[in-house]
Amino acid sequence: MKLSDNQQDRAQKIIKILRKATISMTDPAVSQVARAFGKDPFLILISCLLSLRTKDTISLPISLKLFQLAKTPQELLVIPRIKLEKMIHSVGFYHQKARTLHAVCAALLERFDGKVPYTQAALLSLPGVGRKTANLVLAEAFGVPAICVDTHVHSISNRLGLVKTKTPEQTEMALQKILPKKNWIEYNPLLVKWGQHICVPVSPFCSRCALASLCPRIGVKKSR
Ligand code: SF4
């Protein structure tokens, strides 16, 4: 592993390896929703909000169940809060998330004619929507180049030494400097899959990692 290698070149090598190595891994929940529902921006936004601080294996079935009942802001607003909380109670923070879902639907109807906006600024103006969600919606629903930095992207990019950052926002800015725009959308699903299967948060599987020869394992105290 040569840390002196140009970071842009290292990033390209890493992406190339991950494209092959992740091919048979399950897609992240939001990508599955995007594929199943023809990139419907509203459903992608709702599935992003439900997946915050919750494992995909829990949030995906709940999203799919909810979408059987509601596929538009109007339909979701009609579901009483108590019923909505019961439907999504397995996801973390379900009280708050139920409130957020209703508030987002109301805001979409009031300010955006019931449609999900396609600029980062407008998305960030919605209740409960931060940069991670806004960028994921831009990328998955609208194909707009954006780097969604979740816990996997932040942690693995630091372990790999591609960035040296403390916060997801710093990671996003640093990655924008070393990744060409053509790679921004794919970077999140590649690293999410890697983080779910190999570079897991605690004790990553370095001994069977396809990136091992490129990785300085920064901050990794224990590995398998
Ligand atoms: S070598 Fe270890 S720390 Fe580096 S990417 Fe692979 S699993 Fe993660």
What do these coordinates show?
Helices cover 58% and strands 0% of the residues. By secondary structure, it is an all-alpha fold. It folds into two domains: 7-26 and 146-214, Endonuclease Iii, domain 2 (Orthogonal Bundle), CATH 1.10.1670.10; 29-142, Hypothetical protein, domain 2 (Endonuclease III, domain 1, Orthogonal Bundle), CATH 1.10.340. The radius of gyration is 18 Å and the shape is globular. The mean pLDDT is 95. The protein binds iron/sulfur cluster (SF4). Residues 156, 159-160, 198-199, 204-206, 209, 211-212, 215, 217, 220, 223 line the site of iron/sulfur cluster (SF4).
Which key terms come to mind for this protein?
224 residues; binds iron/sulfur cluster; mainly alpha; 0% strand
Secondary structural class: mainly alpha
Q: How does the overall form come out from the CA principal axes? A: globular
Ions, cofactors and other bound molecules: iron/sulfur cluster
* Whole-angstrom Rg: 18 Å
Order of H and E elements:
HHHHHHHHHHHH
Q: What is the first-to-last residue Cα distance?
A: 19 Å
Mean pLDDT: 95
Please write the CATH class name of the largest domain. Mainly Alpha
Unreliable stretches: none
CATH topology of the largest domain: Endonuclease III, domain 1
For the largest beta-sheet, the strand count, sense and barrel status come to:
none
Please give the count of helices: 12
CATH H level, superfamily name of the largest domain: Hypothetical protein, domain 2
Give me the CATH architecture of the largest domain, please. Orthogonal Bundle
Oligomer: single chain
Overall structural domain count: 2
As a percent range, the share of helical residues equals: 55-70%
β-sheet strand percentage:
under 5%
Total count of strands: 0
